[in-house]
Write a structure and sequence with these properties.
Blueprint (H helix, E strand, L loop, with lengths): L20 H10 L4 H5 L5 E4 L14 E12 L8 E7 L2 E7 L4 H7 L5 E7 L1 E3 L2 E5 L3 E4 L9 E4 L8 H14 L9 H7 L4 H9 L12 H27 L10 H9 L6 H15 L5 E6 L5 H14 L3 E5 L3 H18 L3 E4 L5 H13 L4 E4 L13 E7 L6 H8 L6 E6 L5 H8 L3 E5 L9 E7 L3 H13 L3 E5 L7 H19 L4 E4 L5 H12 L5 E4 L12 E6 L7 H8 L9 E7 L5 H12 L3 H12 L1 H4 L2 H4 L13 H17 L6 H12 L3 H5 L5
Parallel strand pairs: 4-7, 10-15, 10-16, 11-13, 11-14, 12-13, 14-15, 17-22, 18-20, 18-21, 19-20, 21-22
Antiparallel strand pairs: 1-9, 2-3, 2-5, 3-4, 5-8, 6-7
Helix pairs in contact: 6-7, 7-14, 7-23, 8-10, 8-11, 9-10, 10-11, 19-20
Bound molecules: adenosine-5'-diphosphate and magnesium ion.
Length: 694
């Protein structure tokens, strides 16, 4: 249960003075529905009002705070015209301009003949200085009410800075003094203020420097958030570890047969990863392991070996892929090897219907199928296993976390292996999974030639096409990737179709194939097959080829408007070539005009093929939020921390939370109790509920 001391912070924003339903809705959009959300809504800039010039000395386009005499009001004939108030000081005149002003209100605000202080942005209109809707107007006696340095908050349409500031000020007043949950000596070493002090400082920046994510106050708040995140993950993780699993350690008879049928030896990282996986499966606890490896690093074979282990123990295994194409591809890779091992394999996707599907499900329930490969279709309620022991999920970030659990629920204490080809930077890994066990495939299968990557300006496309023509004469297969245009599938497709017809005109109908997201599964497959096995030498595609397609003979990839893609995505795409033993080339066509970041991105790609380096660079260039698409990936969105900037703090929080739980696993000691408050503050209630006296 949430401690009472936090109740005022978890009240709805409507409990604040001056916040009615209308403003509450806007505040909710900008910050969140609760008072505590306002605390986390930090200012983005500051307005400096400390310039106090005379009217004559005031400079256009700058914020000024001016003391002057109210000369007279010019009341417009209708409210549609602006209401003007003339001010004067010893040096000259200026006007204040208001739209839709109420006459009585104005008379009160700016009484004729009185001295007032106004603050706002100076403009020049027909040679006269003016301020339109001054931010502050006060009588001279109250000049102290105008903040000389004022925080500017992120807004949403319809919400004014003033109403946010008023609400935030009240929220800050409600913030109680909470007992310190940080280790005192650590806090002292960092020179960080206490929680409440840090909050106040973050909301009342005295200068630009205070807005820096690296200011003491902001660091402290970021660390709190990261600590809550890491601690919650560590608690959940420990609980998961306590969950009984099954000890799965087969006699290797199937794995031996499959290995013998493999035309290659396993790489060092594959062997290493399998050791880790086998140890996890053999342990009494349930396995939850993430297998990371670049495209083409050979994850599928690793998955197969793990699945055969389960089958050796009399159980079943499932491999789930995010798309139909990928599922079928896995099935084709795994099928022959599984057959060589003498087990029964099936594939299930959304396309399987009716009688055939029913028959398949019956065999699965009866245990006549040992290993099943599929898509989301595997989640359906009527998919029942006789004894599911291991679930492998490929391309993890395309599935939600709950879907993963859904699959696990189809068996008793199912071991989970999650595979991803998107290398995740360490700090992001930590934020999403905490202590999740990870294996990495770092070396590529032997014999792979590196991919040469060149960046070419778009106007030179003719040269590129001519180069391709030469390659085609030598029998090359070429991917031609068209970018996503404004996230719209239609225009996306149109671009691809246009390129398709242009290339067909040049090279002939049969030598060019097209595949895009709007095509039916069977159409896609036909196009791919024409490319993989037929006479088509160019496959024009949208990003649908990002996941999946495996044509080892393809040696050239052209990516149009490469600057529109993210770094990780380009890397994924490029991974489609360089899969065979021939040298490959990736041509990044770029627009003439490039932003600095886009230039950096393309340069990075041309320089390295190491997915982990690329991922770190991507994080640095784009910030954490965009890396995988936060919601889709199940990565938490931080309010106070910025993983790209606070990576060190993340590591510290990670280590600290381990230490804390080693000493006080149930958070029952003095510091433990304070840390519970921290967890509630950041709404990690679920983690606390799993503690003994939750
Ligand atoms: P990933 O799923 O990691 O992108 P795959 O598992 O599809 O990669 O493997 C890519 C290709 O490399 C496949 O054709 C596979 O047969 C091959 N491969 C996998 N492991 C090895 C190895 N140890 N030696 C040579 N080739 C391998
Ligand atoms: Mg794969």
């Amino acid at each position: 249960m949430r401690p009472e001391i936090l109740f005022p912070l978890f009240a709805p924003v409507t409990s604040l003075k001056g916040v009615g339903q209308r403003i509450a809705t806007l505040l909710e959009k900008a910050a969140g529905p609760k008072v505590v959300d306002l605390l986390w809504h930090l200012p983005r800039e500051v307005i400096d009002r400390s310039e106090e010039p005379t009217i004559q000395a005031a400079l256009p386009d700058r914020i000024a705070t001016i003391t002057a005499h109210v000369d007279r009001h010019e009341v417009p004939p209708t409210r549609k015209r602006p209401y003007r108030v003339l001010l004067r000081d010893g040096t000259g005149f200026m006007t204040l301009v208001f739209f839709h002003a109420d006459q009585r209100y104005m008379a009160n605000l700016l009484p004729e003949g009185e001295q007032v202080v106004v603050s706002g942005r100076i403009e020049l209109f027909n040679g006269v200085k003016q301020i339109v809707h001054p931010d502050h107007v006060v009588p001279v006696a109250k000049r102290g009410d105008i903040p000389m340095v004022e925080p500017v908050y992120p807004l949403t349409a319809g919400l004014t800075g003033n109403s946010v500031r008023k609400a935030v000020t009240q929220a800050l007043e409600r913030a109680p003094d909470l007992p310190e949950w940080l280790d005192e000596s650590y806090r002292a070493r960092q020179g960080w203020p206490g929680w409440r002090e840090a909050l106040t400082a973050a909301h009342a920046p005295s200068a630009e420097g205070a807005l820096s994510p690296l200011s003491k106050a902001r660091q402290r708040l970021a660390f709190d958030e990261l600590l809550a995140n890491q601690l919650a993950l560590a608690i959940m993780r420990r609980r998961a570890k306590r969950q009984a699993g099954r000890e799965i350690a087969g006699d290797k008879r199937l794995r031996r047969k499959a290995l013998a049928a493999l035309p290659f030896d396993l790489t060092g990282s594959q062997i290493e990863a399998l050791k880790e996986i086998n140890a996890d499966m053999a342990a009494k606890q349930r396995m939850l392991r993430l297998l990371q490896g670049d495209v083409g690093s050979g994850k599928t074979v690793v998955a197969l070996m793990a699945m055969l282990n389960a089958v050796e123990c009399g159980g079943q295994a499932a491999l789930m892929a995010p798309t139909e194409i990928l599922a079928r591809q896995h099935f084709e890779t795994i099928g022959p090897l599984a057959e060589a091992a003498g087990i029964r394999v099936a594939v299930l996707t959304g396309r399987d219907k009716g009688k055939a599907r029913r028959a398949l499900l019956e065999s699965l329930a009866a245990g006549e199928i040992d290993l099943i490969v599929g898509t989301h279709a595997l989640f359906q309620d009527d998919v029942i296993f006789r004894d599911l022991m291991l679930a492998v999920v490929d391309e993890q970030h395309r599935f939600g976390v709950h879907q993963r659990l859904n699959l696990a629920a189809k068996g008793k204490a199912v071991d989970m292996l999650v595979m991803t080809a998107t290398p995740i930077p360490r700090t992001l890994m930590m934020s999403a999974y905490g202590d999740l066990d990870g294996s990495r495939l770092t070396d590529k299968p032997p014999g792979r030639k590196p991919v040469r990557t060149v960046v070419v300006a778009a106007p030179r496309i003719e040269e590129v096409v001519a180069g391709i023509e030469r390659q085609m004469t030598a029998g090359a297969k070429i991917y031609w990737v068209c970018p996503l245009v404004e996230e719209s599938e239609t225009s996306d497709m149109a671009a691809a179709e246009q390129r398709f017809s242009a290339l067909r005109e040049r090279f002939g109908e049969t030598r060019v194939a097209l595949v895009h997201g709007r095509m039916k599964g069977t159409e896609k497959e036909a196009a791919m097959a024409r490319f993989a096995e037929g006479e088509a030498q160019i496959l024009v595609a949208t990003t649908v080829i990002e996941v999946g397609v495996n044509v080892p003979e393809a040696t050239v990839m052209v990516i149009e408007h490469a600057e529109r893609f993210g770094l990780a995505q380009l890397h994924q795409l490029r991974g489609r070539i360089g899969r065979g033993d021939k040298a490959s080339t990736c041509i990044l066509l770029r627009s003439e005009q490039l932003t600095e970041t886009a230039r950096e991105r393309l340069k990075t790609l041309a320089e390295t093929e190491d997915g982990f380096i690329i991922a770190e660079k991507d994080l640095e260039l784009r910030g954490a939020g965009e890396i995988l698409g936060t919601r889709q990936s199940g990565l938490p969105a931080f309010r106070l921390a910025d993983i790209a900037l606070h990576g060190e703090l993340m590591k510290a929080a990670h280590d600290d939370s381990r230490l804390i739980l080693d000493r006080d696993p149930e958070l029952e000691g003095e510091r433990g109790k304070r840390l519970r408050t921290l967890l509630y503050l950041f709404e990690r209630d679920a983690a606390i509920a799993t503690l003994r006296s939750g």
